Amino acid sequence: MYGHFDLPRAKAGKMGGAFWSAFVPCPTEEGFANEIYAPYVRATLEQIDLFQRLAEQYPKYFTLARSAKEAEHNFYKEGKLISPLAIEGLHQIGNSLSTLRLYHQLGVRYATLTWNCHNLYADAAVVSVNGESVASKPYHGGVSKAGHDLILEMNRLGMIVDLSHVSVDTMRDVLGGSPEKGWNGSLAPPIFSHSSAKALCPHPRNVPDDILQLVKKRNGVVMVNFSPDFVSCRAGNASTGLPDFVEETNTIEHVVEHIMHIG
């Protein structure tokens, strides 16, 4: 997004780093066929190549940081921006765990399970209908059997499971809240890379209270999305009944009383 980031502002804001999303939108075609996904794998690789060339062009500022130890060293010892990569939706792997492993080798350290489309592995919170994003209907009812295997492979690789964009059923499955399905979820703590509290704004992508409690139990992280759609509910003519101005103490901590880290 042009103009949303530059190095002078990052330095002025004492920014330590950020995940760089090799984002590719969902296919317009329906179905999960390999041939549908092939162009999206190519586009993902082109995005990753762009980030790697940026890091090579500006080695004084960027480091792709493939491990926590490397990230810590590069930030504290060399003053570089920690810049690991991410993908935003498993349509980007083209139904292939080999592609997932290749992305990991290239520096991808988290993967969002869905973007605004269902895929072979999990259900999304919203889907595109006639060019508009609408709340989705269940397809798998959460995480599919193929999704179980994929998430365990992400755990093995050390790739973080991101639950932003996914349906509530998918959130619950990954966080181990569906034992009746015979699966205990991710072995490692998942994250929500850009989501907010559904109790404060009933956007279909926001996180309900019971899921926030599961995040607490699994020692996960929710990174608050400050887009107006997810905080004020101005978009889509939605309303929370909240006043325009609230007390300074009205924070996400009131929704789930376990906040350990605020960043």
From TrEMBL:
Q: Which domain of life is it from?
A: Eukaryota
CDD domains reported in the protein's UniProt record: rDP_like (cd01301)
Q: Which cofactor does it need?
A: Zn(2+)
Task: Show the catalytic activity.
Answer: an L-aminoacyl-L-amino acid + H2O = 2 an L-alpha-amino acid
Q: Which organism is it from?
A: Friedmanniomyces endolithicus
Enzyme Commission number, as recorded: 3.4.13.19
GO biological processes: proteolysis
The record ties this protein, via SUPFAM superfamilies, to:
Metallo-dependent hydrolases
Q: What is this protein called?
A: Dipeptidase
Q: Spell out the InterPro entries in the cross-references.
A: Metal_Hydrolase, Pept_M19
Q: Which GO terms describe its molecular function?
A: metal ion binding; metallodipeptidase activity
As for family, the record states:
Belongs to the metallo-dependent hydrolases superfamily. Peptidase M19 family.
Keyword terms: Dipeptidase, Hydrolase, Metal-binding, Metalloprotease, Protease, Zinc
